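hey
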């Protein structure tokens, strides 16, 4: 255990908990029930969006974007109710600089300001410091290349001269970028420096790690009552990255196990705020964003490999209940454009 920083949470709460929901395969019809449940239980979390659609084949086809008027209206409603809306890149596939600039402007026009937080998506060419470029240490870069099972498209969002470059826009508009993910609820068991910055990563003001659950089954396994009790006893910090579009809702109802564990969690003495709100609080309490380097950064990067092995063993298939919703959304979109 790395040690808990001397940080008090608002209202004397004993731990902090938030969710960072990647927008992959999310439609308005599908995600509305989970957000209604979160709001009813008192959670305020972070939901990412894509601003622009993608016209072409994609594993994420059917997902809604800010160019869908009803979806954009719902996203504004979430923001007004205290949820944070973050940026998952311009669209579901790779985007060049002009498209990213347009996506940021559409976000601002829709929501009144630029996004504060960002997470890279899949293997998009415009991702910032992704793939092998997540690592500062040569050992971990070499190990990543050895372990990568497939040839990856390089992430070029931070590479000046690339058609995908937008690190200067990120530095201008964003405060936080998600970095590594772990099989650990209490992120202070990974590093006491959250958020953190690193040398040699211009364009990113601060990184933050998170716990990770790809889909509903992994989310249920991650947030067991025992693990939540441990988080509370350690007075910990938890940010869970997940995809609410992956199996969380069936026929308009939230998965009963998810509803049960969220209800249980809401009864605990936690601070349930959006990710950037939590990170802003930590920055203020700690006197700024900490520079992470040397042995501490070496350990943070190395732990990702160890937790990656644990995560792969815990990978769970799930019932893809989102598919009918994606198909309906695609059909409706085609009808409107036709």
């Amino acid at each position: 255990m790395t040690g808990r920083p001397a940080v008090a949470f608002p209202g004397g709460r004993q731990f902090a908990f938030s969710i960072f929901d990647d927008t992959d395969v999310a439609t308005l019809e599908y995600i509305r029930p989970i957000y209604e449940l979160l709001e009813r239980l008192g959670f305020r979390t972070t939901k990412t969006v894509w601003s622009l659609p993608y016209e072409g084949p994609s594993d994420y086809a059917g997902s809604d974007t800010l160019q869908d008027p009803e979806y954009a209206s719902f996203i504004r409603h979430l923001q007004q109710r205290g949820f944070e809306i973050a940026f998952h890149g311009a669209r579901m596939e790779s985007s060049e600089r002009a498209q990213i600039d347009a996506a940021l402007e559409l976000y601002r026009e829709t929501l009144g300001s630029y996004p504060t937080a960002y997470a890279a998506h899949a293997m998009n060419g415009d991702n910032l410091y992704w793939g092998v470029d997540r690592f500062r240490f040569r050992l971990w870069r070499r190990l990543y290349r050895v372990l990568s099972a497939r040839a990856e498209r390089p992430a070029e969002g931070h590479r000046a001269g690339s058609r995908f470059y937008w690190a200067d826009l990120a530095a201008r508009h964003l405060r936080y970028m998600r970095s590594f993910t772990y099989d650990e609820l209490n992120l202070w068991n990974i590093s006491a420096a959250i958020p953190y910055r690193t040398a040699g990563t211009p364009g990113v003001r601060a990184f933050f790690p998170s716990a990770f659950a790809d889909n509903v089954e992994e989310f249920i396994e991650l947030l067991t009552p025992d693990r939540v009790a441990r988080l509370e006893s350690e007075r910990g910090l938890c940010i869970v990255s997940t995809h609410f579009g992956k199996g969380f809702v069936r026929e308009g109802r939230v998965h009963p196990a998810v509803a049960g564990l969220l209800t249980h969690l809401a009864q605990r003495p936690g601070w349930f705020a959006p990710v950037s709100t939590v990170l802003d609080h930590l920055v203020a309490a700690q006197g700024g964003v900490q520079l992470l380097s040397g042995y501490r950064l070496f350990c943070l990067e190395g732990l990702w490999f160890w937790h990656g092995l644990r995560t792969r063993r815990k990978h769970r298939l799930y019932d893809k209940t989102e598919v009918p919703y994606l198909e309906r959304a695609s059909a409706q979109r085609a009808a409107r454009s036709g």
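The first helix runs from residue 28 to 41. The mean pLDDT is 96.
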